[in-house]
Amino acid sequence: MFEKILIANRGEIACRVMATARRMGIRTVAVYSDADADSRHLAMADEAVHIGPPAARESYLVADRVIDAAVKTGAQAIHPGYGFLAENAEFAEACAKAGVTFIGPPPDAIRAMGLKDAAKKIMENADVPVVPGYHGDAQDTDLLIAEAEKIGYPVLIKAVAGGGGKGMRRVDSADAFEAELAGAQREAKAAFGDDRVLLEKYLVKPRHIEIQVFADGHGNAVHLFERDCSVQRRHQKVLEEAPGPDVSAEMRTAMGDAAVAAAKAIDYQGAGTVEFIVDVSNGLDGAPFYFMEMNTRLQVEHPVTELITGQDLVDWQLQVAAGGALPCGQDDLTITGHAIEARVYAEDAARGFLPSTGKLQRLRAPAEGPHVRIDTGVREGDTVTPFYDPMIAKLVVWDHDRASALRRMSSALAQYQVVGPTTNIAFLRRVAEHPAFMNGDVETGFIDRYGDDLVPESVPASDDILAVACLSVLLDQTAERQVQAAQSNDPYSPWHRSDGWRLNDQGHQVVHLKDDEQAIDITVHYAADAYVVDLPDGSVTMRGEREADGTLTIDLGGRRSSAAVVQNGNELTVITHGHSHRLVLFDPLEAFGDDEAAGGAIASPLPGKIIQVLVAEDDEVAKGDPLIILEAMKMEHTVSAPGDGKVTQISVAAGDQVEEGNEIIVLELAGD
Ligand code: ADP
Ligand code: ADP
Ligand code: MG
Which mutation among 192, 208, 234 tests ligand 2's pocket best, with the greatest number of atoms within 8 A of CB? Predict the structure, then answer.
């Protein structure tokens, strides 16, 4: 076994790999970019090597620097994690050349599966069914249009070199084809440096079911059952589970055998995932399944497989890479219980899942234990930057059956507290608690179909939320006055009293809050050992204190609960009863001179690069019309018109770099 390995990755997966290495007594080396100089993965490693600036293509993607770091530190092997260099055959070859073991499949196996078109040809030859479509070499637009016509709409354009849902576009009719093709090619070129595409029949009601496979260098290959990853947004997974809801033993065996055949067809070694798409338009029973692609690496969602099989897949990877045999055979593997993973992302479900960035001012995860596992690469105080994937954590739960696991999931999500970037936590909870999901009624269109039920609507702050906000403000004031009193020469001065005493006043004060533009004034009276707060639904006696870790304990008319409030400038984020709510503290006197926001000025929703400006000054636009295409985190985002109107100013041009909040375009909205 290796004595020291280097992990050529960052974030949660780097931490995940190091956890197993440490357990096995293997020393670890981290690599890091400038943006990660103070990150969790670095703190976990025994040694760390700086490899460049924040942009991945100048750091985590530079094979030479990573290999140099391994050589320099005497690491005998490199674990690539997922993403970055994980599926790069040249990198695997360069490792071998430098005398460092690549913890992954042989370069030829990576190459065979690296391009989706070539992979489909290999699978056809191995009698594994593939999705009907076009995967030829010729790429001219007219030919692709003709092929799409032949397949019949809707079709799916996929980047041949694709991954992570990038460069993928669904096209419903011939007239939209060319524009979507151009978009897919652009995205593919930017993300993979290869703009070739293939076409597939778009299945309207599919499930994504994938099989975890493992093979060693001694001719052994097994599968570790399936994962269902059907709940996706932008063709990217959000929730994954194992075993797949309602998957029969026969289907599991048929898919498992096909996946093992796929692995054998390319002399595979190590961990891999064979992804299938299952056409469930006529139900799951006897549904046809088709090979989609093989991911020649450890998958993001591998923990659900670990929890139902009791195996550590990173341990297996290390053993296989060190020349060992698989730790067990097919017959030794069994499924126990049910596991579900939710990807906690810094993103805004209400705004088309736009990634969000910023400092994690508060980050409290549910307690880990036999039922709850958290894989994360960030800590409270860390920042989600625009440079990498905005995943905050993977929350994985396990229980004896699916219904119990789902209950664990929703209660764990309710305990998650994240303040800073917008997150998908409330969204995930709605999915986990949705009757259709609870019923196992999953398919890849789930989020689109139930979108309105899933995106949390903005509701006015409840009395409890307002009370918690007031308590936090009052406790802060008291603490501040006590500090002043302690510093003052006259501790008895009325100016330093902490009970709200005022000249000519009856011991009360008004807390001014704003809830989504709605001003709410709350009068608080000081009683002997409590406050009486006049809330919209009536007055209530309130007591409470702040614990050392910032948690508030609050007693409202005899009901006790705990809450958290994070203040950032004037903004208060209140977390109580598993929900979080933003309020603004304001001073009505200061509010007077406030500038009105310019009616139709549209700000960039996130930091990124302008790819294309689709309108010109003086153009008339209708609500929803695409105005500007922006690229951020390697994905394209379209900024659309918020209402009917006319373009009066365009502040950016293609190629410009913008920050979140920069004005990019101004509309004069009709009716303004
Ligand atoms: P699939 O390729 O089937 O979508 P995954 O969901 O495991 O499988 O990951 C897809 C790809 O997206 C990964 O190879 C990686 O490039 C990228 N990716 C997904 N999540 C992350 C993440 N948290 N950090 C970095 N890259 C990620
Ligand atoms: P990536 O490499 O980006 O993971 P995949 O080929 O694995 O790309 O597809 C990602 C997702 O897109 C699938 O999980 C599925 O939801 C959807 N998808 C892929 N192919 C089809 C298809 N032919 N019809 C409908 N949906 C598809
Ligand atoms: Mg995939």
Answer: 208
Report the alpha-carbon distance of residue 289 to residue 286 in Å, rounded: 9
pLDDT of residue 513: 95
Angle CA(292)–CA(294)–CA(298) in degrees, nearest 5?
A: 135
233 lines ligand 2 (CB under 6 A): no
Taking the CA of residue 83 as reference, the ligand 1 atom at the shortest distance is 16
Q: For 338-386, write each residue's pLDDT tens digit.
A: 999 999 999 999 988 999 999 999 999 999 999 999 999 999 999 999 9
Domain coordinates of the chain in residue numbers?
A: 4-103, 132-201, 208-454, 476-585, 595-669
Please state which of the four CATH numbers 3.40.50.2000, 3.30.70.1110, 3.40.640.10, 3.30.470.20 is assigned to the domain occupying 208-454.
3.30.470.20
pTM, whole model, 2 decimals? Answer: 0.86
Band of pLDDT at residue 191, cut at 50, 70 and 90:
confident
At 70 the pLDDT is 98
Q: Please tell me which residue in 111, 169, 227, 297 is annotated as part of the active site.
A: 297
CATH of domain 132-201: 3.30.1490.20
Q: Which atom of ligand 1 is nearest to the CA of 165?
A: 4
* Inter-residue contact 560 to 552 (CB < 8 Å): no
Which ligand has its closest atom nearest to the C-alpha of 170?
2
Q: Which residue has the higher pLDDT, 603 or 228?
A: 228
Secondary structure of 454-496 in HEC code, one letter for each residue? HCCCCCCCCHHHHHHHHHHHHHHHHHHHHHHHHHCCCCCCHHH
Ligand 1 in reach of 293 Cβ (< 6 A): no
Residue linked to tokens 């589970």: 241
The question of whether 297 is a catalytic residue gets the answer: yes
The answer to whether the CB of 200 is under 6 A from ligand 2 is yes
593, pLDDT greater than 60: no
Can you read off the two tokens belonging to residue 73? 């530190």
| Percent of residues, the chain, with pLDDT higher than 70 | 95
Q: Which ligand has the shortest distance to the CA of 159?
A: 2
For residues 263 and 221, is the Cβ–Cβ distance under 8 A? yes
Kindly state if the Cβ of 391 falls inside 6 Å of ligand 1.
Answer: yes
